[in-house]
UniProtKB/TrEMBL annotation:
Organism: Ceratopteris richardii (Triangle waterfern)
GO molecular-function terms, A-Z: RNA binding
GO biological process per UniProt: RNA modification; system development
Name of the protein described by the UniProt record: Pentatricopeptide repeat-containing protein
NCBIfam families in alphabetical order: PPR
Taxon lineage: Eukaryota, Viridiplantae, Streptophyta, Embryophyta, Tracheophyta
Keyword Ligase part of the UniProt annotation: no
Amino acid sequence: MMITEGVELSTHIYVALLKTCINMKWIARGYTLHAQIVMENLHLHPFINTTLLHMYFKFGMIVEARDIFDSSQFRDLILWTALITGYVEQDKCQEALDCFDQMQEEGMVPDPVTYVCCLKACAVLGNAAKGMEMHRDVVRLGFDSNRIVGNTLVDMYSRFGMLTDAKEVFEKLPEKDIVSWNTIATGYAENGLGAEVLALLQRMKMEGVEPDTITFVCCLRGCSSMRAIEKGQELHAELVKEGLESDQFVSSTLVDFYVKSEKLEEAREILDGMVMRDIVPWTAMVTGYAEHGCDDEVLDCYSLMQAETGPLTMATISSVIFAYAEQGEAEKTYWQFVHMQEQGLLPNSSIFVGLLVACRNSYTLQLGKIVHALSFRLSFGDIIVATAAINMYASCGSMVHAHTLLNALPFKKVITWNALMTGYAHHGNSKLVFGLLKDMQHELIAPDEITFLNVLSVCSHSGLYNEVLDYLEDMWHRGIYPNVKHYTCLIGLLCRTGQLDEAMAMLNMLPIDTGLMSWHAVLSACYKLGSMKLGKHAFDHVVSMDEDHGAAYILMSNVYSDSEIKDEMK
């Protein structure tokens, strides 16, 4: 008995020491402890084995962690879950799901902790089919009432863009904590559903749930997405009243909100009032200045940033380059490229992508050719840069260059095929889009959601209604769930062919909220076809999502004008 107690005591001591090594990141001491454990023949103890596996994963030593698992004589649920958790934490999510399948094949029944890890893996991988399969298993096993499992399901569906499913899981939770509320709020914010975030905040207050900083951050992001400036300012005032404005996370989000609301003075005032300023608010501020062509302020921020946070980082330079790039400021983007090298920063693939995006948006083909050649000469000819170059050539109308570049690539991925396909779709060349789809399938490259968007786009503009339905069905069979843009192709086709009633019926039947694009398409069609009643209905939907949507007011005004003219002619 004393020997047994002694072994147990040694086991707990070693586990405590291993956890100390993990917390202190003492890799060498962890190795030494592992060797000592083997010498004392304690390495087969399940508790120690699990802790060793956890330690090696925390150190990023995946091979060593797997060796611990493979050499274990007792693979219980705790050890399997530790292995799966480690893979997920190390961004090896497919390996985690493979282990999940393997453990079930060996007769092991997962518990809620296992499912939480695997649902996170599905979310990261975008594997909606597997995630939905696990959800069904969770319900069958009765784990759906577990709050942590429920929160994870809400997060997973939100990442898939399946907000209806996320909301359904959220509403069915028997108990909701602040994490539950913030998870659905984050999902709405990430998917640009600002109105839903703000409605959720009101509901929280009505139900006596105290919002925290994360809730307010989601609401501010929602205001940014829907350009609800006044509401954002109200939230700012509420944050000041609650004493939360000084929170670094909140302050950084306020800077970002005011930048995106084009209120740079207010953003700068928040930034200047921050006690602790890291690179995040500075980058938001300098990006805002770049987007509005405030070049002197960009340089001023650079100087202040360097004084406070040290040398400029690649992330900041990259943000400014992409800000100029999105504005089509190819020359300014190029000078940022020169400036970064003067600061001793060497360009990476992301920088060249930004330069090529700038050339694409400004249709500057000659500079684009120079940038592409330079990236190739500096050995940045990877698939991401090549894809950006194909996009640039296609946008500049040089489809020959784009197609030649694709053919020259030794390895092609779906993103490169999509880049060329997008170019042909933009130019309305449906024959070549379908040809590229066949070539992809011949090379055994599976189409993704962007591939289908290109195909649906040309089908929509070519009036191929049955083909649109066939491709949407094919997406479902492949486990690719259509999003707003895919369904908008169908709605757009119905509108262009004058089938407004069918378009409205389809909008009400669809499994997701199609947002502004589809309703704007309906409103445009109502103007062209002179449909006053449906036009008013579509207009109400558009302004409910974006009250400052100028184009909607113009279209509706034209609908009214045309209707009055027709009445006068009668």
